[in-house]
Amino acid sequence: MTANTAVIQIEQLSKTYQRSRKEQVDALKGLNLTIQQGEIFGYLGPNGAGKTTTIRLLLDLIRPTTGRALLFGEDARANSVALHRRIGFLPGELNLWKGYTGQQVLDYVGKLRGGVDAAYVRQLVDRLQFDPTLKVRTYSSGNKRKLGLVLALMNRADLLIMDEPTGGLDPLMQQIFNELMLDVKAEGRTVFLSSHVLSEVQAICDRVGILRGGELKAVESVSNLMHADFQWVTLHFREPVAANALAQVVGVSEVQALPDGLRLRLVGDFDPLLRALAPYYVTGMVTEEPTLEEVFLTYYSGTSGKEATR
Fold it and tell me: What residue spans of the chain are helical by DSSP H?
Protein backbone atom coordinates (compact mmCIF):
# COMPACT_ATOMS: atom_id res chain seq x y z
CA MET A 1 0.00 0.00 0.00
CA THR A 2 1.09 3.56 -0.66
CA ALA A 3 0.70 6.72 1.39
CA ASN A 4 -2.79 8.23 1.45
CA THR A 5 -4.29 4.79 0.87
CA ALA A 6 -7.59 4.15 2.62
CA VAL A 7 -7.02 1.40 5.17
CA ILE A 8 -10.62 1.65 6.41
CA GLN A 9 -13.45 2.71 4.11
CA ILE A 10 -16.92 2.65 5.66
CA GLU A 11 -19.95 3.29 3.47
CA GLN A 12 -23.46 3.84 4.84
CA LEU A 13 -22.87 1.29 7.60
CA SER A 14 -25.84 0.68 9.90
CA LYS A 15 -26.72 -1.84 12.58
CA THR A 16 -30.20 -2.30 14.02
CA TYR A 17 -30.98 -4.67 16.88
CA GLN A 18 -34.46 -6.08 17.38
CA ARG A 19 -34.99 -5.71 21.10
CA SER A 20 -38.50 -7.16 20.94
CA ARG A 21 -41.23 -7.75 18.35
CA LYS A 22 -42.30 -4.13 18.67
CA GLU A 23 -39.04 -2.39 19.48
CA GLN A 24 -35.76 -2.03 17.64
CA VAL A 25 -32.59 -0.12 18.48
CA ASP A 26 -30.44 1.66 15.91
CA ALA A 27 -26.92 1.13 17.28
CA LEU A 28 -25.26 2.64 14.21
CA LYS A 29 -26.85 4.86 11.57
CA GLY A 30 -25.46 5.34 8.07
CA LEU A 31 -21.81 5.66 9.06
CA ASN A 32 -19.45 7.04 6.39
CA LEU A 33 -15.79 7.22 7.31
CA THR A 34 -12.38 6.97 5.63
CA ILE A 35 -9.14 6.34 7.52
CA GLN A 36 -5.84 6.63 5.69
CA GLN A 37 -2.68 4.59 6.01
CA GLY A 38 -0.28 5.83 8.67
CA GLU A 39 -2.71 7.84 10.77
CA ILE A 40 -3.90 7.43 14.33
CA PHE A 41 -7.63 7.96 14.32
CA GLY A 42 -9.50 8.57 17.58
CA TYR A 43 -13.10 7.40 17.76
CA LEU A 44 -14.84 9.33 20.52
CA GLY A 45 -18.11 8.82 22.29
CA PRO A 46 -19.47 7.69 25.67
CA ASN A 47 -20.72 4.20 26.40
CA GLY A 48 -23.63 3.33 24.13
CA ALA A 49 -22.66 5.73 21.34
CA GLY A 50 -21.90 2.89 18.90
CA LYS A 51 -18.10 2.67 19.09
CA THR A 52 -17.88 -1.03 19.95
CA THR A 53 -20.60 -1.86 17.42
CA THR A 54 -18.46 -0.22 14.73
CA ILE A 55 -15.43 -2.27 15.76
CA ARG A 56 -17.40 -5.53 15.74
CA LEU A 57 -18.67 -4.75 12.26
CA LEU A 58 -15.14 -4.01 11.02
CA LEU A 59 -13.95 -7.36 12.38
CA ASP A 60 -16.98 -9.25 10.99
CA LEU A 61 -17.97 -10.33 14.50
CA ILE A 62 -21.47 -9.09 13.71
CA ARG A 63 -23.11 -8.36 10.37
CA PRO A 64 -24.42 -4.96 9.27
CA THR A 65 -28.07 -4.23 8.63
CA THR A 66 -27.07 -2.05 5.67
CA GLY A 67 -23.87 -0.71 4.15
CA ARG A 68 -20.39 -2.16 4.06
CA ALA A 69 -16.84 -1.77 5.35
CA LEU A 70 -13.66 -2.19 3.33
CA LEU A 71 -10.30 -2.95 4.95
CA PHE A 72 -7.24 -2.47 2.73
CA GLY A 73 -9.70 -2.21 -0.16
CA GLU A 74 -11.29 -5.61 0.53
CA ASP A 75 -14.76 -6.34 1.83
CA ALA A 76 -14.59 -6.93 5.59
CA ARG A 77 -17.25 -9.66 5.38
CA ALA A 78 -16.10 -11.55 2.30
CA ASN A 79 -12.41 -11.65 3.24
CA SER A 80 -12.47 -11.54 7.04
CA VAL A 81 -10.16 -14.52 7.66
CA ALA A 82 -7.38 -13.20 5.43
CA LEU A 83 -7.84 -9.64 6.69
CA HIS A 84 -7.54 -10.68 10.34
CA ARG A 85 -3.92 -11.68 9.66
CA ARG A 86 -3.18 -8.02 9.03
CA ILE A 87 -5.00 -6.72 12.12
CA GLY A 88 -4.01 -6.44 15.75
CA PHE A 89 -7.05 -6.18 18.01
CA LEU A 90 -7.47 -5.21 21.65
CA PRO A 91 -11.10 -5.64 22.81
CA GLY A 92 -12.65 -3.59 25.56
CA GLU A 93 -13.34 -6.77 27.53
CA LEU A 94 -10.40 -9.19 27.44
CA ASN A 95 -11.21 -12.79 28.41
CA LEU A 96 -8.17 -15.08 28.48
CA TRP A 97 -7.26 -18.50 29.81
CA LYS A 98 -7.11 -17.90 33.56
CA GLY A 99 -5.11 -21.04 34.31
CA TYR A 100 -2.30 -20.10 31.90
CA THR A 101 0.62 -17.85 32.70
CA GLY A 102 1.02 -14.69 30.69
CA GLN A 103 3.96 -16.27 28.87
CA GLN A 104 1.94 -19.35 27.96
CA VAL A 105 -0.76 -17.11 26.48
CA LEU A 106 1.85 -15.18 24.48
CA ASP A 107 3.47 -18.39 23.22
CA TYR A 108 0.15 -19.94 22.23
CA VAL A 109 -1.16 -16.90 20.38
CA GLY A 110 2.24 -16.38 18.78
CA LYS A 111 2.17 -19.91 17.36
CA LEU A 112 -1.37 -19.41 16.06
CA ARG A 113 -0.39 -16.20 14.31
CA GLY A 114 2.94 -17.44 13.05
CA GLY A 115 5.93 -15.32 12.10
CA VAL A 116 6.04 -13.51 15.46
CA ASP A 117 9.43 -12.05 16.40
CA ALA A 118 10.20 -13.32 19.92
CA ALA A 119 12.73 -10.53 20.50
CA TYR A 120 10.09 -7.92 19.70
CA VAL A 121 7.65 -9.57 22.11
CA ARG A 122 10.29 -9.43 24.86
CA GLN A 123 10.84 -5.76 24.05
CA LEU A 124 7.12 -5.06 24.43
CA VAL A 125 7.02 -6.98 27.72
CA ASP A 126 9.94 -4.95 29.05
CA ARG A 127 8.57 -1.58 27.92
CA LEU A 128 5.20 -2.28 29.55
CA GLN A 129 6.89 -3.60 32.70
CA PHE A 130 4.78 -6.73 32.45
CA ASP A 131 5.53 -9.91 34.39
CA PRO A 132 4.60 -12.86 32.14
CA THR A 133 5.47 -15.54 34.71
CA LEU A 134 2.23 -15.16 36.70
CA LYS A 135 -1.08 -16.83 35.94
CA VAL A 136 -3.74 -14.75 34.25
CA ARG A 137 -6.15 -15.21 37.15
CA THR A 138 -3.75 -13.29 39.42
CA TYR A 139 -3.41 -10.24 37.18
CA SER A 140 -4.92 -6.90 38.05
CA SER A 141 -7.04 -5.16 35.41
CA GLY A 142 -3.98 -3.09 34.47
CA ASN A 143 -1.80 -6.15 33.97
CA LYS A 144 -4.49 -7.87 31.90
CA ARG A 145 -4.52 -4.74 29.75
CA LYS A 146 -0.75 -4.96 29.34
CA LEU A 147 -1.06 -8.58 28.23
CA GLY A 148 -3.74 -7.57 25.75
CA LEU A 149 -1.52 -4.83 24.37
CA VAL A 150 1.36 -7.24 23.81
CA LEU A 151 -1.00 -9.66 22.05
CA ALA A 152 -2.34 -6.89 19.80
CA LEU A 153 1.10 -5.53 18.95
CA MET A 154 3.14 -8.74 18.73
CA ASN A 155 2.72 -9.38 14.99
CA ARG A 156 3.40 -5.79 13.90
CA ALA A 157 -0.03 -5.62 12.25
CA ASP A 158 -0.74 -3.17 9.43
CA LEU A 159 -3.87 -2.05 11.28
CA LEU A 160 -4.38 -1.84 15.03
CA ILE A 161 -7.96 -1.69 16.30
CA MET A 162 -7.98 -0.70 19.97
CA ASP A 163 -11.14 -0.53 22.08
CA GLU A 164 -10.54 1.61 25.19
CA PRO A 165 -6.89 0.48 25.26
CA THR A 166 -5.65 2.26 28.39
CA GLY A 167 -8.43 1.23 30.80
CA GLY A 168 -6.80 0.17 34.07
CA LEU A 169 -3.34 1.52 33.18
CA ASP A 170 -1.60 3.95 35.50
CA PRO A 171 -0.41 7.33 34.12
CA LEU A 172 3.13 6.05 33.46
CA MET A 173 1.83 3.12 31.44
CA GLN A 174 -0.56 5.41 29.58
CA GLN A 175 2.45 7.46 28.51
CA ILE A 176 4.28 4.32 27.38
CA PHE A 177 1.17 3.30 25.42
CA ASN A 178 1.20 6.69 23.69
CA GLU A 179 4.85 6.16 22.76
CA LEU A 180 4.08 2.70 21.36
CA MET A 181 1.28 4.09 19.20
CA LEU A 182 3.53 6.85 17.88
CA ASP A 183 6.12 4.17 17.02
CA VAL A 184 3.43 2.32 15.05
CA LYS A 185 2.58 5.52 13.18
CA ALA A 186 6.27 6.19 12.44
CA GLU A 187 6.43 2.75 10.77
CA GLY A 188 3.58 3.73 8.45
CA ARG A 189 1.01 1.53 10.14
CA THR A 190 -2.51 2.61 11.10
CA VAL A 191 -4.35 2.83 14.43
CA PHE A 192 -8.11 2.98 14.95
CA LEU A 193 -8.51 3.89 18.60
CA SER A 194 -11.85 3.95 20.39
CA SER A 195 -11.57 5.97 23.57
CA HIS A 196 -13.22 8.33 25.99
CA VAL A 197 -9.85 9.40 27.49
CA LEU A 198 -9.64 12.75 25.76
CA SER A 199 -6.13 13.62 26.96
CA GLU A 200 -4.90 10.41 25.31
CA VAL A 201 -6.63 11.27 22.06
CA GLN A 202 -5.30 14.82 22.11
CA ALA A 203 -1.75 13.58 22.67
CA ILE A 204 -1.45 11.06 19.83
CA CYS A 205 -4.32 11.23 17.32
CA ASP A 206 -4.17 12.92 13.94
CA ARG A 207 -7.95 13.08 13.51
CA VAL A 208 -10.96 12.26 15.62
CA GLY A 209 -14.52 11.26 14.91
CA ILE A 210 -17.24 12.20 17.37
CA LEU A 211 -20.07 9.70 17.63
CA ARG A 212 -23.44 10.45 19.24
CA GLY A 213 -26.36 8.06 19.39
CA GLY A 214 -24.98 5.93 16.57
CA GLU A 215 -24.42 8.92 14.28
CA LEU A 216 -21.10 10.49 13.32
CA LYS A 217 -21.38 14.16 14.22
CA ALA A 218 -17.95 15.40 13.20
CA VAL A 219 -14.61 14.30 11.81
CA GLU A 220 -11.85 16.81 12.41
CA SER A 221 -8.12 17.01 12.84
CA VAL A 222 -7.14 17.43 16.47
CA SER A 223 -5.48 20.75 15.61
CA ASN A 224 -8.74 22.04 14.11
CA LEU A 225 -10.75 20.90 17.10
CA MET A 226 -8.37 22.75 19.36
CA HIS A 227 -9.21 25.91 17.40
CA ALA A 228 -12.92 25.57 17.90
CA ASP A 229 -15.37 28.36 17.23
CA PHE A 230 -15.55 29.42 20.87
CA GLN A 231 -13.13 30.52 23.55
CA TRP A 232 -13.09 31.41 27.21
CA VAL A 233 -12.54 35.06 28.15
CA THR A 234 -11.60 36.19 31.64
CA LEU A 235 -12.08 39.90 32.37
CA HIS A 236 -10.70 41.82 35.35
CA PHE A 237 -12.30 45.12 36.38
CA ARG A 238 -11.31 47.98 38.66
CA GLU A 239 -14.84 48.06 40.10
CA PRO A 240 -17.29 45.15 40.54
CA VAL A 241 -19.41 44.32 37.48
CA ALA A 242 -22.54 42.19 37.73
CA ALA A 243 -22.62 38.99 35.64
CA ASN A 244 -25.92 39.95 34.05
CA ALA A 245 -24.32 43.11 32.64
CA LEU A 246 -22.84 41.05 29.80
CA ALA A 247 -25.28 38.17 29.63
CA GLN A 248 -27.22 39.61 26.67
CA VAL A 249 -24.17 40.44 24.51
CA VAL A 250 -24.14 38.69 21.13
CA GLY A 251 -21.92 35.58 21.30
CA VAL A 252 -21.60 35.62 25.10
CA SER A 253 -22.82 32.81 27.33
CA GLU A 254 -21.98 31.01 30.58
CA VAL A 255 -20.98 34.20 32.40
CA GLN A 256 -19.45 33.43 35.80
CA ALA A 257 -18.63 35.90 38.55
CA LEU A 258 -15.06 36.00 39.87
CA PRO A 259 -13.73 37.91 42.92
CA ASP A 260 -12.35 40.67 40.67
CA GLY A 261 -14.13 40.11 37.37
CA LEU A 262 -16.04 37.77 35.08
CA ARG A 263 -15.36 34.66 33.06
CA LEU A 264 -17.45 33.95 29.99
CA ARG A 265 -17.72 31.87 26.86
CA LEU A 266 -17.46 33.79 23.58
CA VAL A 267 -18.51 32.59 20.13
CA GLY A 268 -17.61 34.69 17.11
CA ASP A 269 -16.13 38.18 16.98
CA PHE A 270 -14.88 40.26 19.91
CA ASP A 271 -16.46 43.50 18.71
CA PRO A 272 -19.89 43.13 20.40
CA LEU A 273 -18.17 42.28 23.69
CA LEU A 274 -15.70 45.17 23.45
CA ARG A 275 -18.52 47.63 22.76
CA ALA A 276 -20.43 46.33 25.79
CA LEU A 277 -17.33 46.84 27.96
CA ALA A 278 -17.07 50.56 27.12
CA PRO A 279 -18.74 51.74 30.38
CA TYR A 280 -16.33 49.71 32.56
CA TYR A 281 -12.66 50.09 33.47
CA VAL A 282 -11.02 46.82 32.34
CA THR A 283 -7.70 46.13 34.09
CA GLY A 284 -6.97 42.85 32.32
CA MET A 285 -8.28 40.34 29.79
CA VAL A 286 -7.16 36.73 29.20
CA THR A 287 -8.41 34.40 26.45
CA GLU A 288 -8.16 30.59 26.54
CA GLU A 289 -8.84 27.97 23.91
CA PRO A 290 -11.22 25.21 25.05
CA THR A 291 -9.86 21.84 26.05
CA LEU A 292 -10.60 18.85 23.84
CA GLU A 293 -13.05 17.67 26.49
CA GLU A 294 -14.98 20.94 26.27
CA VAL A 295 -15.02 20.71 22.48
CA PHE A 296 -16.28 17.14 22.69
CA LEU A 297 -19.05 18.14 25.07
CA THR A 298 -20.04 20.93 22.67
CA TYR A 299 -20.48 18.44 19.85
CA TYR A 300 -22.16 15.91 22.07
CA SER A 301 -24.66 18.43 23.42
CA GLY A 302 -25.63 19.25 19.85
CA THR A 303 -24.68 22.94 20.08
CA SER A 304 -22.11 22.78 17.29
CA GLY A 305 -23.25 23.55 13.80
CA LYS A 306 -20.56 21.47 12.13
CA GLU A 307 -21.52 18.41 10.14
CA ALA A 308 -19.65 15.13 9.89
CA THR A 309 -17.28 14.86 6.98
CA ARG A 310 -15.39 12.05 5.39
Answer: 51-58, 80-84, 102-113, 118-127, 141-153, 171-186, 198-204, 222-225, 271-276, 292-300
